[in-house]
Amino acid sequence: MSGPAYQPSMLDLAAAEPTLGPLAGRLRRRQLSRGAWVDHLPGWVAGSDAVFDTLLHDVPWRGERRTMYDSEVEVPRLLSWYGPDRPLPHPLLTEARTALTRHYTPELGEPFVTAGMCLYRSGRDSVAWHGDTHGRSAHTDTMVAIVSFGAPRPLLLRPRGGGASLRFPLGHGDLVVMGGSCQRTWEHAIPKTARPVGPRVSVQFRPAGVA
Ligand SMILES: O=C(O)CCC(=O)C(=O)O
Question: Does the predicted model carry a pTM greater than 0.70?
């Protein structure tokens, strides 16, 4: 695709090669209710501009339509799915998946395997409140690790069934990991915004059988 307009950050241009920082001792965990938690690490990836550029231009983005009540509506973001055997579009993402697996396996008991990707072209793109409850995450604790590239957008979380929402700002190169019962007992969303924001790509790493 011809990519949406994106201005590389001056700070990031200084870092020639994209690199990952350490996870141990840097992640901050927030315990939520009912056995859910969120780990957050701003700036995990340094030099993210090259990765973002590859994601915008080399990923085969596609639009989807979904049935809502009686009509078909366009999903307000573009999507791409990398299953276990499909090489990821940038080596930094392969490194990120390996680092996440190494760090979380003692707690998760299995590797991160798949990568779902979303492209939010502007503030009009969004994802509505939901939990990732297709597959094993409907009944089992698991983890979903998200690395964010491009324009900052907030990830909101709220308890399923009602309650105040929490806001995790996700900027260029930031990591957030939702764990424990989070997909079953909490919901998350990326709301639309009227502010003029550039494109954002979210890369979500999940274990096999979680979607
Ligand atoms: O954009 C994000 O980081 C969240 C994406 C998401 O919730 C999903 O695709 O299920």
Answer: yes
Identity at 103, one-letter amino acid code: H
- Domain that residue 135 falls in: 27-206
Mark out the alpha helices in 15-170 (DSSP H runs): 49-58, 91-108
Q: Does any ligand 1 atom lie closer than 6 A to the CB of residue 48? A: no
Residues 98 and 157 sit within 8 Å (Cβ to Cβ): no
127 lines ligand 1 (CB under 6 A): yes
Q: Do 141 and 179 form a contact (C-beta atoms < 8 A)?
A: yes
Q: Is residue 2 part of a domain?
A: no
Ligand 1 mean position, distance from CA 202 (Å)? 7
Distance CA 105, CA 156 (A): 26
Structure tokens at 62: 């596609």
Burial (CB count <10 Å: 0-12, 13-18, 19+), residue 66: exposed
Domain assignment of residue 97, yes or no: yes
pLDDT one digit per residue (tens) for the chain, 211 residues: 444 555 555 555 555 689 999 999 999 999 999 999 999 999 999 999 999 999 999 999 999 998 888 889 999 999 999 999 999 999 999 999 999 999 999 999 999 999 999 999 999 999 999 999 988 888 899 999 999 999 999 999 999 999 999 999 999 999 999 999 999 999 999 999 999 999 999 999 999 999 8
